[in-house]
């Protein structure tokens, strides 16, 4: 027994050391695994949340792109590019003499909205938004916008790749379709003399400027966040020139001076008739 | 001599028993508390993110969503009604009255008589068109 004691103690000590080592290893590895798992889990969930936030923001980006894109196009008479157009003070002329130039406003607005939305795509660095196409349908007092892409929205972090469908559709309350219809009506009836053009939610102003009529049609019903020398809520205003003879607006022409363009020497086919008749073009 | 030998064996047995117990209990205790802390941190962090995602999905009225209230705060006045709507929704989502919302420039929603520092979450938010930047971050801090 005397010789067994120290051996037993040594064996126990050895076992204790091994156990202690096991404990330390266990703790060390456990800590490391738990931390890595938590970090990985955190990154994956964070990546999912960011993709989800961008996805929920896309309809708003569509709305903001439409607000800015439509505002800019309406400001330039329904044209996205005014190159080669007859202009007065940087505003296109819709009618000059007997020639009428009516814009394809739907194409102009769609093109500009796509251009602005592309800037939102470029600004999103963490989450890649795929290139796609926005189509716009103007129906009554609404515009329906649809963004469709064959690619996927994705966030490629170090630990996970998160993908989602970027397609989005929104409806926006706007009277743009009505505004262009009224504009066309004004142009078509430019030679019909006195006429009231005011339509429920639209207001019309026609002012004489540079021997032509500057027509402004404003949507009174809706305002949009727009950047134009600063960010603010603005109403959509369609503006264009009509350079032909006629009495515009609600007031009757009392003299040649009240007729747009007629006050200057009239060309052969345009001019106001004598005041004994209704003022109109001949 | 026999008694001394028995004492030695008893001591050895006690050492063995204590060592065995410690070798089992200590790792379990460490892992239990360590994992609990890790899981709690993960849950808290992502709850702030999720609260923000839920917040921006809610409507303020027929026209505006809370997303637009936050993204257009520079031009919409960000009045008392808007702030109250945000506070009411955050109260429900966080079950807390102590929170603040900031972006990269300013504090949008200030806390009332408290200092929220414990939980932080952020999401990207798309802004109305302008020439400076089209995307910002909305950060939620709550206690």
Offer a quick outline of the entry.
The complex is a heterodimer of chains A (282) and B (143). Chain A contains three helices and eleven strands; from the N terminus they run H-E-E-E-H-E-E-E-E-E-H-E-E-E. Chain A has helices at residues 4-75, 105-123, 176-188; strands at 87-88, 91-96, 99-100, 133-139, 142-148, 153-156, 161-164, 168-173, 202-209, 212-227, 231-243.
Please, what is the average pLDDT of chain A? Answer: 80
* Total beta strand runs of chain B: 4
Major sheet characteristics of chain A: 6 strands, mixed
Order of helices and strands of chain B: HHHEEEE
Given the structure, what is the number of helices of chain B? 3
Helix content of chain A: 25-40%
User: What proportion of the residues of chain B is helical, as a percent range?
Assistant: 40-55%
Give the amount of beta strand of chain A, in percent: 25-35%
Stretches of chain B where pLDDT is under 50 for at least 5 consecutive residues are none
Instruction: Report, as a whole number of angstroms, the end-to-end distance of chain A.
Output: 137 Å
Structural summary, described in words:
The complex is a heterodimer of chains A (282) and B (143). Chain A contains three helices and eleven strands, in the order H-E-E-E-H-E-E-E-E-E-H-E-E-E. Chain A is of the alpha+beta class and 282 residues long. Chain A is rod-shaped and about 120 Å long. Chain A starts with a helix and ends in a 39-residue tail after the last strand. Mean pLDDT of chain A is 80; it is low at 248-254 and 261-282. Chain B has 143 residues and is an alpha+beta fold. In chain B, 53% of the residues lie in helices and 16% in strands. Chain B has three helices and four strands, in the order αααββββ. Chain B has helices spanning 2-56, 66-71, 80-94, and strands at residues 99-102, 107-109, 119-126, 135-142. In chain B, a hairpin with an 8-residue loop joins strand 3 and strand 4 (135-142). In chain B, 23% of the residues are buried. The mean pLDDT of chain B is 82. Chains A and B meet through helix 1, helix 2, strand 10 and strand 11 of A and helix 1, helix 2 and strand 3 of B.
């Amino acid at each position: 027994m005397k010789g067994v004691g120290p051996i037993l103690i040594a064996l126990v000590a050895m076992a204790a050391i091994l156990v202690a080592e096991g404990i330390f290893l266990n703790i060390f590895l456990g800590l490391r695994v738990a931390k890595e798992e938590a970090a990985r889990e955190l990154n994956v969930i964070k990546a999912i949340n960011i993709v989800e936030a961008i996805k929920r923001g896309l309809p708003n980006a569509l709305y903001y792109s439409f607000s800015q894109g439509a505002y800019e196009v309406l400001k330039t008479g329904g044209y996205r590019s005014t190159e080669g157009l007859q202009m007065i003070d940087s505003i296109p002329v819709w009618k000059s003499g007997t020639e009428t130039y009516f814009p394809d406003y739907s194409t102009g607005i769609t093109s500009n909205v796509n251009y602005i939305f592309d800037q939102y795509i470029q600004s999103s660095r963490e989450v890649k938004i795929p290139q796609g196409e926005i189509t716009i349908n103007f129906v009554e007092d609404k515009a329906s916008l649809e963004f469709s892409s064959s690619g996927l929205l994705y966030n490629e972090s170090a630990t996970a790749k998160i993908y989602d469908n970027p397609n989005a559709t929104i409806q926006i309350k706007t009277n743009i379709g009505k505004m262009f219809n009224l504009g066309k009506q004004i142009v078509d009836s430019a030679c019909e003399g006195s006429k009231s053009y005011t339509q429920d939610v639209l207001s019309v102003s026609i002012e004489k400027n540079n021997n032509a009529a500057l027509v402004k049609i404003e949507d009174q019903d809706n305002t949009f966040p727009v950047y134009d020398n600063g960010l603010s809520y603005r109403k959509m205003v369609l503006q264009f020139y009509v350079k032909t003879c006629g009495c515009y607006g609600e007031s009757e022409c009392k003299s040649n001076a009240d007729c747009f363009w007629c006050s200057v020497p009239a060309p052969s086919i345009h001019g106001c008739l004598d005041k004994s008749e209704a003022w109109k073009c001949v | 001599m026999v008694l001394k030998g028995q004492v030695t064996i008893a001591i050895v047995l006690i050492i063995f028993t204590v060592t065995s117990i410690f070798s089992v209990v200590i790792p379990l205790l460490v892992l239990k508390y360590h994992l609990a802390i890790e899981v709690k941190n993960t849950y808290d962090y992502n709850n702030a993110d999720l609260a923000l995602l839920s917040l921006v999905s809610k409507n303020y009225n027929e026209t505006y969503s809370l997303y637009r209230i936050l993204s257009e705060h520079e031009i919409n006045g960000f009045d008392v009604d808007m702030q109250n709507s945000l506070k009411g929704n955050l109260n429900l989502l966080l079950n807390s009255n102590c929170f603040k919302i900031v972006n990269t420039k300013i504090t949008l929603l200030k806390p009332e008589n408290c200092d929220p520092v414990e939980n932080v979450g952020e999401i990207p938010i798309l802004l109305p068109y302008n020439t400076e930047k089209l995307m910002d971050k909305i950060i939620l801090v709550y206690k």
